[in-house]
Write a structure and sequence with these properties.
mainly beta, 3 domains, 5-stranded mixed β-sheet, RNA Polymerase Alpha Subunit, Chain A, domain 2, 4-stranded mixed β-sheet, about 300 residues, 5 helices
């Protein structure tokens, strides 16, 4: 007894201070105003068996309603909270995962009053793997005067994993629509596979690229009344105008005007008198002469 009294007497002031601080802390926490709120906790699924997949809806968050001291609740609402679910032992079929009060670990003083959803019900389905061709899907058309010459995807085939009953019905995997409305030249576009709400995924995640070869259409136009110029000697021509038909890339031919076409006959080294001369047409680069009417015309050179 004397030894106990001696221990209590030793460092009495420090012991009393510690006791005071402990009581003050307890009163601060226990006496703090309490509040209640909902916490949205991210759901993380771990160790999914490679031969199974979830074919039911999986919530991205679990809503947990908690109550406790205002300071602790404020800290929780500002934290990034995650709840993990180990799936290593799951079997095919529908399985239930209870999410009771004891499923979450919060600081002392915080109580869980409600969990939604509870229980969490998931359906696990056996999977198969198939290799399917990728089919490019277009949105809209190229601008006026342009056309798609060819398309290809890289890769051309992909390995897909999913339920057998869904994969058995597929002949190909479409892409997300590729917008053509502003394309006027060959382009390589990044796209993705469109699984159309099916429970499918790529076995080997790889970018899907679309090589789209777009070029101008070929346009043919006829221009009447093109003046013919004799060169280098002056001559009287009959007729003195021709009709010219050209073809070439749509934008270039579309913007072409009469003054852009030059028709001539060569009068070099010719004597005076009447001659039959072939009409030559000078075209801008990129255009092709289809026809000129008439192809030749009468020329009369006066004596010098």
């Amino acid at each position: 007894m004397s030894a106990l009294l001696a221990f209590l007497e030793r460092n009495r002031s420090l012991k009393l201070l510690s006791l005071f601080l402990a009581v003050a802390l307890w009163l601060a926490v226990g006496g703090e105003e309490r509040t209640e709120t909902n916490l949205n906790i991210s759901l993380e699924l771990l160790n999914m068996p490679h031969n199974l997949m979830i074919t039911s809806e999986v919530p991205s968050h679990i809503q947990v309603r908690v109550s406790g001291p205002r300071g602790l609740i404020r800290t929780l609402t500002q934290s990034r909270l995650t709840h993990t679910l180990d799936l290593s032992d799951v079997k095919p079929g529908r399985q239930t995962f209870p999410l009771g009060v004891g499923s979450f670990h919060f600081p002392r003083g915080v109580q869980v009053t409600r969990v939604q959803p509870n229980p969490l019900v998931l359906t696990f389905t056996p999977t198969v793997t198939r290799t399917l061709p990728v089919q490019l899907v277009f949105l809209g058309r190229p601008p006026e005067g342009y056309e798609v010459k060819s398309v290809r995807t890289r890769p051309s085939k992909v390995k897909i994993k999913g339920p057998a009953n869904e994969l058995d019905e597929l002949k190909f995997i479409p892409t997300v629509p590729v917008d053509l409305t502003n394309l006027t030249q060959p382009s390589t576009l990044a796209t993705d596979l469109n699984f159309q709400d099916l429970h499918l995924s790529m076995v080997d995640q790889t970018p899907i690229l679309a090589d789209v070869d777009i070029s101008p259409k070929i346009l043919k136009r006829t221009f009447e009344g093109i003046p013919v110029v004799p060169q280098p000697q002056a001559a009287k021509l009959s007729p003195d105008k021709v009709t010219v038909t050209v073809e070439g890339p749509w934008p270039q031919v579309k913007s072409l005007e009469n003054q852009n076409l030059k028709a001539t006959v060569s009068t070099g080294n010719l004597s005076s008198g009447r001659h039959r001369l072939k009409v030559e047409v000078l075209l801008p680069n990129g255009l092709t002469l289809v026809s000129v009417t008439p192809q030749s015309l009468a020329a009369r050179l006066e004596k010098k």
